[in-house]
Amino acid sequence: MRSLRHRAIVGGLIWAAIALAVGGVALYYIFDVATQRRFDDTLLDRQLQLVSALGNTEGDVDLVEDFLTDPAYLRPYSGRYWQISGAETDTVASRSLFDSLLPEPRDPAPEPKFWTGAGPEGTVRGAYSLVELDDGTSWTVMVAESLAALELERQRFRQGLLSTLALIGVLGIAGAILQTSAIVRPLTKLREDVAHRWDREEALDPGDYPSEVAPLVADINTLLERNRDIVERGRRQAADLAHALKTPSAILRNALDSLERDGTDIAPAKEALDRVDAQLLRSLARIRAANSGATTQALANLSGSVDRMARLFRSMPATRSKDFRTEADPDLRIRMDMQDLEEVLGNVLENAFQWSRKTVRLACGNSGSETWIAVEDDGPGIPDHARREALRSGGRLDTSAPGTGLGLAIATDLVQAYGGTITLGDSAALGGLSVRISIPTRLGLGPVRT
């Protein structure tokens, strides 16, 4: 479980469940003890009333019923009973006992005692004591009440307790989710601000975040600045290396041209030098992409680059006679460095113009999750079995044609560095090759537009 939100919610729910369980058991125990004590206190009150009634009759147990006003004593099997027994007289009981009697205690004493046993209709709990009157007679005075009422009260409490705990649990879950969301919200904001930082080209303000997160924000600022410096330094070094290699390459090419004018066959050497230049360009492109690539937040103006490529190829003598059509939204942007984007477009378009007969078409758009570029031509195309070879390093399919065969490979390296793909297919409109370039948009931001 890697999500802090899930950890906090699950942890809170576990502790809430433990607290509810412990609290529920404690509340039930306290209520059970309290109801039992209240039940016993009521029994003692009734037993005292019976003793008082016996004293008022001066030992005439037949008159005791006249001093007791509880109607439950008059209703058979009502669940509330009394019984008086003496050593030399018959036992007298309430009418509620009907044709039964309560069990006689074995050791009656002046201090009231409690007992639980079988009654006329189920289990009863009672209180009894030994009472001595002024005339010297001794009586065992007993009262009892059915435990059904006590159990019913306990059952109702359990139901109420469970309902209350369930409500508290629901409120606790909602509270845990809301509280966790409030706690994690600064981290979510930080993630979004980091994603947008390159768009705004400004540092994050630690004052916009809680004190616990502010040090992390400061560290992220330092890390992002250092990363920017590393990327810029890597790209400058690649540019310096490219510039440094141009001079010896130009010297070698001039020397080969001089030998060619003298009648020397320099075709193999010139082709080898072309391939060296192409490999150097590819390596430099890969160095640049490695220093930015999928981690970059730069947004290049795709329509502007398409317009520049269109002007370039329409002005070149070798391509100006061909029909070049472009279709690009003027507000469309792509998550690539502009130099890398134009190198990809240049290599793909150069390949398309080299093999096309009359027409090359470029279109681009955004599907929400990716920005795509499609380049089509009316040339011979590439068979299915040879398309993978065409994207591989140095995969020349026709060695008789000029070029190094690295154009699509260089484009593939750059596109893959940005997490994208290049797909070769058949052009449905022109009949030749279709090259589709897909670069994912940044997650959570939707289509990239100005």
From TrEMBL:
Task: Give the superkingdom in one word.
Answer: Bacteria
- Keyword annotations from UniProtKB, A to Z: Kinase, Membrane, Phosphoprotein, Transferase, Transmembrane, Transmembrane helix
Q: Where is the Histidine kinase domain?
A: 240-443
Looking at the UniProt entry, the stretches that span the membrane are: 12-31, 160-178
Q: Which GO terms describe its molecular function?
A: kinase activity
Major subcellular location class: membrane
**InterPro entries in the record:** 2CSK_N (IPR013727), HATPase_C_sf (IPR036890), HATPase_dom (IPR003594), His_kinase_dom (IPR005467), HisK_dim/P_dom (IPR003661), Sig_transdc_His_kin-like_C (IPR004358), TCS_sensor_his_kinase (IPR050428)
Q: Which PANTHER family match?
A: SENSOR HISTIDINE KINASE TRCS, SENSOR HISTIDINE KINASE YKOH
Q: What is this protein called?
A: histidine kinase
Organism this protein belongs to: Defluviimonas salinarum
